[in-house]
Amino acid sequence: MLTAAMRRMLELTARHHHESELETERLCSAQQQAERLLETRERAHRQQVKELEEQVYQRSQSVNQLINQLINHSINQSINQSINQSIILSINQDNHFRLTNHNETE
To answer: What average pLDDT score do residues 77-97 get?
Structure first.
């Protein structure tokens, strides 16, 4: 026969075992929840990285476009300056030629 102390010990052991099982289940559940949260955060982080990469790409495209516009503008200015200098030189040469011919005919 079991004594009262032995029964009490068995009850405490059973209760402790049951509480340990509940704690294990709670910890497993908490771990699963933490893993799901981590996966969600990782997905959000990957999405944010993709968005930032897209922003970098768009801005680099804008910078490249601006650089090309500046280069074209600079080239056009150089061409226009060269043309203007050529026209002025031609006008000066023409005026000199006319003055020279006018002076010779007088």
So the answer is: 85
